[in-house]
Every structure is written in C-alpha cells, then in structure tokens.
Design brief:
The chain is of the alpha+beta class and about 140 residues long. It is about 45% helix and about 10% strand. The chain has one domain (about 5-135). It has six helices and four strands.
Length: about 140
C-alpha cells in the first residue's frame, strides 16, 4: 500500500487556497494526503508530465495509483481521506454535484482576480518561482 491516498497540488500564493489547505493539514491526522506546493522554489511540473499553467488553471490531485484528477473531485477525495465521507456523499447528490462543479469552475477562472493577484495589465498566471528568479536576475 502506498504511503498516501492522494497528493494535492496547490498554489501557496493563493490566500483562499491556503485556508483550505491549512484546514486539511490539521484534519489529516493519519497523513493520508501528500501536499505539494506548486509555487515552491524548485517545483518542476514538467517532471510530473504536466505544465505549471495546467496546475494553475485548476486544482489537481494524483491518486496513489498514479491517476490524475481535477476540480471538485480532488476536494471529494481530500475530504474522504480525512474522514469526512458523509460530506463527500452529499456532494455527489444530483443537483448538488452540478452546482459545486459550476461554482468551482467559476472560482478557478477568477481566483487570481478574487485574491488580489491581478494588476493593470490583467490577470496573467504568475511565473513559477524558478522563472521569477531568472527574470529578476
């Protein structure tokens, strides 16, 4: 058996995202979640077979089997891993599922703006820490 059930790829520069991640870290007493910060220096999305832009576009998770999942399904798996399976069951109900999927897609498309990470030029995905350093040099 693997050492974790799900690995979550999160953006530590996102204040709302970090609120959720901190809560999950506290609830993850059995260490069933691997937390991977895509904004950390040295993080390399290409080594995982994806891109930084794809990971910034919406939340991604990777199951211990190696299968990738995205969006609300990641949260379902995270909540299930920390023992909140009754909550997960509610999110699968007809109507609730579609509502959550819609709300998350809207959040994902607007999170840079809604978390104050846009400037006069717009809401471009910030470069990874590796690229920021080379741009500042």
């Amino acid at each position: 058996m693997s050492e974790y059930e799900i690995e979550v790829f999160f953006d530590s520069e996102c204040p709302l995202c970090m609120r959720e991640i901190r809560m999950l870290q506290k609830l993850d007493r059995k260490q069933r979640i691997r937390f991977t910060d895509i904004a950390a220096p040295g993080f390399d999305a290409e080594a995982l077979g994806t891109t930084y832009e794809a990971l910034m576009d919406k939340i991604h998770g990777r199951l211990s089997s190696g299968e990738w999942i995205t969006g609300v399904e990641v949260f379902r798996r995270l909540y299930g891993a920390v023992g909140l399976k009754p909550v997960v069951a509610l999110t699968r109900l007809p109507g609730v599922r579609q509502g959550l999927d819609f709300a998350y897609e809207r959040f994902a498309k607007n999170r840079l703006k809604w978390t104050g990470r846009c400037d006069a030029a717009g809401c471009a995905i910030p470069p990874p820490q590796n690229e920021q350093r080379s741009l500042e040099a």
